[in-house]
């Protein structure tokens, strides 16, 4: 708006964003900056505005791109050594839609390698620091995205959420993070993790910005057959005084006192403004974490098998025969957490164990989906914390994978069921940011975001 009204130029906004990115270099947010191209694009937008030519809805708005989105701008590394040399010939659909509206990517941002993690410590480029306390983790896997928005370097950032990777870092850094309904936004051109739960979404300062980004990017894409027919922005979407469900069954001892307090305060606030609160029994959700850590490794092990040193990215130059090219390239190119998951995934898919693990997990997944369906017969939205703890210390959990996985207990059930969920920051007594999340039925994305505007 300010750009269109000529009170500020796109060039000025991009320069400011790049300046801030340099100021916060210690936080290790960016894997690469897009300085020259970003400034060129800004100049072009300023020229168009001066000439009275039409510009898009995001004209001149600087943004950060999670480094697992493919585009010819820079190298798409997925924060890994194996993809570090990769310059993509294609552009992800979501990126193409943002660029068509004039948004300007100022840099690619850090993640846990291949999005495997909850802290951005599993990155080949080292950890990103938390925006509120640099001795703590950024959250993950989209840690760079969350911190870039929280420190106000950019207006928004892209993310991917397979089991919480948008919502958890959003809540660790006090910004909005949205994981849409599975299939709402095309995943074409996004480095695949677990194909049955991967979602593209965003980090913003406000729900209004989230709404705009969804309007721009959601929609069916012939290049991604899992996309749903267009639904976002198609009909009126304000629920009158939605009923809010609260889940009784979570082990409350595992949840930090300040998070419980934030929940209690939010429930009181909702009651005061006339919302009915209903308690939900969802006993199957406690199996969701176990199900996720069978299903996600199975899918990601299959997806990562394409990284063999032959087709793209890094190749170990010393290997003398084909088998050792594969082995040495993958040995060097993947992080320890990637390798752990590849092994778990191939184990649960192997004959003899498939029925006991993968098939059983898929059956429990169906029960989880049904449990949510029953819950949404009793309420419009479910309110839960995003994670059991606020941002933990750097190094605290990185050598204890099970402790790290436990951080995902509140976010993964939602991905298994393909539901939309918005993490929003709440005021609390804690010195660290705290987020809660609202979960809705499939395709309730806009209603959910509109409700957050009211909150
Ligand atoms: N923290 C979860 C995991 O490590 C989710 C990651 C994600 O959503 N990409 O699998």
Q: What's the story with the biggest beta sheet?
A: 11 strands, mixed
Shape call: globular
Would you state the CATH class of the domain at 10-217? Alpha Beta
Q: Based on helices, strands and strand pairing, what is the structural class?
A: alpha/beta
Number of strands: 11
CATH topology description of the domain at 10-217: Amidase signature (AS) enzymes
Which cofactors or ions or other ligands sit in this model? glutamine
Would you identify the CATH H-level superfamily of the domain at 10-217?
A: Amidase signature (AS) domain
Strand content: 5-15%
- Approximate helicity band: 25-40%
Can you put this structure into words, describing what you see?
There is one protein chain. Helix content is 36%, strand content 12%. With 455 residues, the chain is an alpha/beta fold. It has a domain at 10-217: Amidase signature (AS) domain (Amidase signature (AS) enzymes, Alpha-Beta Complex), CATH 3.90.1300.10. The chain has an eleven-stranded mixed sheet, sandwiched between helices. It is globular, with a radius of gyration of 21 Å. Residues 115-118, 141, 160-165, 193, 296, 408 line the site of glutamine.
């Amino acid at each position: 708006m300010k750009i269109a009204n000529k009170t500020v130029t796109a060039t000025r906004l991009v320069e400011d964003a790049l300046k801030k990115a340099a100021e916060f270099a210690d936080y290790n947010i960016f894997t690469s900056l897009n300085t020259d191209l970003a400034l060129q694009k800004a100049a072009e937008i300023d020229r168009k505005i001066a000439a009275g030519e039409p510009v898009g809805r995001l004209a001149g708005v600087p943004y950060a791109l999670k480094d697992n989105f493919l585009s010819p701008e820079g190298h798409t590394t997925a924060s890994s050594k194996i993809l570090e040399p990769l310059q993509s010939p294609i552009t992800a659909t979501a990126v193409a839609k943002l660029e068509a509206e004039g948004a300007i990517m100022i840099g690619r941002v850090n993640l846990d390698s291949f999005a495997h993690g909850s802290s951005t410590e599993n990155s080949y480029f080292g950890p990103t620091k938390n925006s509120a306390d640099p001795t703590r983790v950024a959250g993950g896997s989209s840690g760079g995205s969350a911190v870039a928005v929280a420190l106000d370097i950019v207006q928004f950032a892209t993310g991917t959420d397979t089991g919480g990777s948008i919502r958890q870092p959003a809540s660790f850094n006090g910004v909005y993070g949205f994981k849409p309904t599975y299939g709402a936004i095309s995943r074409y051109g996004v480095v695949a993790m677990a194909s049955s739960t991967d979602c593209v979404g965003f980090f913003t300062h406000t729900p209004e910005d989230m709404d705009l980004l969804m309007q721009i990017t959601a929609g069916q894409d012939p290049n991604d057959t899992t996309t749903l027919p267009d639904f976002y922005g198609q009909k009126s979407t304000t629920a009158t005084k939605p009923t809010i469900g609260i889940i009784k069954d979570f082990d409350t001892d595992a949840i930090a006192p300040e998070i419980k307090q934030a929940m209690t305060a939010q429930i009181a606030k909702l009651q005061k403004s006339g919302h009915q609160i209903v308690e939900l029994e969802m006993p199957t959700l406690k199996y969701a974490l176990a199900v996720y850590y069978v299903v996600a490794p199975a899918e990601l092990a299959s997806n990562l098998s394409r990284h063999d040193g032959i087709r793209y990215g890094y190749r170990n130059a010393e290997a003398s025969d084909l088998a050792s090219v594969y082995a040495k390239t993958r040995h060097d190119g993947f992080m320890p957490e990637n390798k752990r998951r590849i092994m778990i995934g191939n184990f649960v898919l192997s004959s003899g164990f498939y029925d006991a693990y993968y098939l059983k997990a898929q059956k429990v997944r169906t029960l989880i989906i049904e449990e949510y369906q029953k819950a949404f017969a009793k309420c419009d939205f479910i309110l839960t914390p995003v994670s059991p703890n606020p941002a933990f210390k750097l190094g605290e959990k990185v050598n204890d994978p099970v402790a790290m996985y436990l951080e995902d207990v509140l976010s993964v059930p939602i991905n298994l069921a393909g539901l939309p969920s918005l993490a929003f920051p709440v005021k609390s007594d804690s010195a660290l940011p705290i987020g809660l999340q609202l979960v809705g039925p499939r395709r309730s994305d806009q209603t959910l975001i509109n409700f957050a505007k009211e909150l």
